[in-house]
Specification:
Layout (H helix, E strand, L loop, with lengths): L1 H37 L5 E4 L2 E11 L2 E6 L3 E4 L3 E6 L8 E9 L3 H7 L8 E5 L4 E6 L6 E9 L2 E9 L4 H10 L3
Antiparallel strand pairs: 1-2, 2-3, 4-5, 5-6, 6-10, 7-8, 8-9, 9-10
Length: 177
Amino acid sequence: MKKKLVLLIIILLGLFTITGCSSTKEKTNNQKEKKEEQKIDDTLVTVNGVELHMNQEKEFKGIKYTITDDLKEADYDQYIQYYLYQDSGPNLLFFRIFYYEGKTRDEIRNDLAIDSSLIEEAGKTDNVNYTLIDTKRTDGTIHYYMIDKDNITYVINFVSQYDIKDFEKKVLNSIKL
């Protein structure tokens, strides 16, 4: 009987030891997972389920900005265009930067076919002051941000049928003149 009791105690101690180690390992693994979840990728922007990483430094005629390297680029004399198509459905987004030197607001608005009744709203990031023209579209986004420096006006134009405000914010916050 004593042998059975001693054997039972040894078995129970063994079970407690194994369970205790396992519990400690589980806690350690859970803590690691929580730390990994807490790491936030501040370059990540999602547009219509497509993940874009804002990690590509670019420059166009004196304006510097950060975009995703997933975008295709087309460089013209007066502007540069970035775009991304989807496999199905409409284009994901267009992003353009126009360069105007020595032009008035009316001349710029006329060149870009911006309705004269649309109001310009002042705004700023940590790096630049801008004027926003929101076309108030219900079927997507068409925004124009005008940034002046000396005799130059840059117009940053965002176009999409999807919610791209996080993309816009990341680009605008990255702009440096």
